[in-house]
Amino acid sequence: xxxxxxxxxxxxxxxxxxxxxxxxxxxxxFELLIAVILSAQAHVRLHK
Length: 48
Hints:
Elements: H1 3-16, H2 29-46
């Protein structure tokens, strides 16, 4: 995927939802990273 396609994808995301929110609870960027990792692990385990 080239840079132009990536920009177009993000432009469309921004157009559709300019202020996205997460359902994950966090207070620091590190906590968000850990929450995303744990959420992904749980998702994978549920769908095996």
